[in-house]
Amino acid sequence: MRRALSLVGLAAVPLAVLGVFFVLPVSGMISEGFWTDGSFDPGAVLEVLARPRVHRVIWFTVWSACAGTAVSLLLGVPTAHLLHRRRFPGRRVLRALLVVPFVLPTVVVGVAFRELIGEAGPLGFLGLDGSAAAIVAGLAFFNVAVVIRAVGAAWESLDPRPAEAAAALGASPAYVFRTVTLPALRPAIVSAASVVFLFCATAFGVVLTLGGLRYSSVETEIYLLTTNLLDLQAAAALSIVQLLAITALLAITSRLRAVPDPTLARSTARPPRPSRGDWPGMVATGLVLLLVGLPIAALVVGSLQVDDGWSLANYRALDGTGSRQALLVPVTDALVTSLRTAVDATWMSLGLGVLVAVVVSRRSRSRAERRARGLLDGLFMLPLGVSAVTLGFGFLITLDRPPLDLRDSLLLVPIAQALVALPLVVRTLVPVLGGIDDRQRQAAASLGAGPLRVFATVDLPTMWKPLLAAAGFAFAVSLGEFGATSFLARDDHPTMPIVIFHLIGHPGAMNYGMALAASVVLAACTAVVMLVVERLRVPTVGAF
User: Fold this and answer.
1) What percent of the chain has pLDDT over 90?
2) Do the Cβ atoms of 352 and 418 come closer than 8 Å?
3) What is the CATH number of domain 42-265?
4) pLDDT tens digits, residue range 349-365?
5) How far is CA 35 from CA 40, 45, 228, 234, 236, in A?
6) What is the pLDDT of residues 4-22, one digit of tens each?
7) Are the CB atoms for 57 and 235 separated by under 8 Å?
8) Are 1-36+312-544 and 42-265 in the same CATH fold?
């Protein structure tokens, strides 16, 4: 009974927050789709799903997610082998740099690709601006880091003796990989592929900035139906379909992640240097560096060019509101708002994440307790299965009346961003807390230490690095969050992604130059945070 009360007490606050700021908005969104004029009308959802445009939107979402996943795997798996199984100068720096794109703001990446492949860009002659290929490249830009981390961590821990034995018996390297290595890596590859597909299917800023008027995903269609057409019922219907599909995919991903792999055992041998047979990894790594480096380089160069000359004028203009009053507040004010919002979202997600991680990582003494902890773990992963656009839409239509009228509250945006970051924080902390020997806690308790003292003396010394990494990860995600914020941010308190999107939507060379400069500043802030996190050597991305 004491353990049950302790479990309920620790989970009470996160459950209350989840109920008010997740279950309530999502249920309000569902009711918007199924209830018409106060009466239950499921036919309205079916009518929306029968529209030809909706069919095209769903098909493009599935197709682009599959294509982005395939490109990420083709580039990420060979690169993971080179970066995690071979030794060469600068390997750690390269691994740190390749994790940065995963948390770059989607709007920044969209602007960078447009600067690279636009009509006036270095690769404008390819005619890729506004094409499906550009969207797939943008999706791979973000998600190749997930494959490198997840597969690389598994590859690094792979016992080399079975492959060495097969090679000693005369098997070729290709045969060894196909019959020994690949079966051992299959769980990590499949799990990484499912997570990448999830991220590609819920991409918002990339499709919105690169798709133009020709291509639209479920995410961008919900946004357009809500903000431009005011068709809330159609937006709710699409949100319901997306919620069901992504929740099913999350369940599959959780099952795949839970499958134990007995072939993994940490190898202490020093990795060899690259050889001639590692050419696939070298080629893939070169392509990844081009995929990541070219858009960023084009963005930086474009921000420094004014009237065919080099100048810092675009950066100096950030303390203004652009030409023809494109903005209500200067970009510098938006940067301060973004930093302040990110700090609030970070402490919120950390406070909730620590409580959730403690609850779900403790050893269970009965089947009922184990099921309860597993259910709680699944509940707090649900925000990962609902897109930020859908969450922002739910906030918009439910938190608008007493006693929860938060439309004018400045805390609404950081609360939404904290929910987006919460699953990432939990997944970073749970493996660390779960790896602590429970006998240490029992020993401390037997010496008279209370629960808080046990946590401070046993858990905290082990988890402080992952806690700092989770804080940095949540901060970076909040800085670049665009989906929910696009619904909730007030015009007089916009964040940097909102400002950048507004600037590229207003004509004028000055506005576009300011968008480039603001994108560089926001990307630099995010990169610095993630490079600091990488120094802690905590596998944040690989946890998914």
Assistant:
1) 11
2) yes
3) 1.10.3720.10
4) 998 888 888 888 777 67
5) 4, 10, 22, 12, 11
6) 666 677 778 888 888 888 8
7) no
8) yes
Count Cβ neighbours within 10 Å for each residue of 110-142 and write b for 16 or more, e otherwise: bbbbbbbbbeebebeeeebbbbbebbbbbbbbb
Q: Which tokens go with 244?
A: 């069901």
3-class secondary structure per residue, 19-30: HHHHHHHHHHHH
Q: Which fold has domain 1-36+312-544?
A: MetI-like fold (1.10.3720)
The four Cα atoms 447, 448, 453, 459 give a dihedral, to 10 degrees, of 40
Instruction: Name which residue leads in pLDDT, 152 or 260.
Output: 152
Cα 536–101–133 angle (5° rounding)?
160
Query: Per-residue b/e over 441-456, b at no fewer than 16 CB within 10 Å?
Result: beebeeeebeeeebbe
Whether residue 45 contacts residue 33, with contact meaning beta carbons closer than 8 Å, is answered with yes
Q: If you average pLDDT over residues 76-83, what whole number do you get?
A: 89
Query: Residue 472: which of 531, 537, 423 has the closest Cα?
Result: 531
Ranges of each domain in the chain: 1-36+312-544, 42-265
Please report the pLDDT score of residue 225 as a whole number. 80
Helix/strand/coil for 224? helix
CA atoms of 15 and 10, how far apart (whole Å): 9
Residue 480 near residue 101 (C-beta atoms within 8 A): no
pLDDT tens sequence across 188-230: 888 788 888 888 888 888 888 888 668 888 888 888 887 777 7
Q: Are 141 and 298 in contact (CB under 8 A)?
A: no
Q: Residue 53 and residue 238: Cα distance in Å, rounded? A: 12
Tokens of 43: 């036919």
Residue 250 φ/ψ, nearest 5 degrees:
-60, -40
Q: What are the φ and ψ backbone dihedral angles of 190, each rounded to 5 degrees?
A: -65, -40
| C-alpha to C-alpha distance for 72 and 195, rounded to whole angstroms | 11
What is d(CA 500, CA 515) in angstroms, rounded to the nearest whole number?
5
- Model confidence at 37, pLDDT cuts 50, 70, 90, reads low
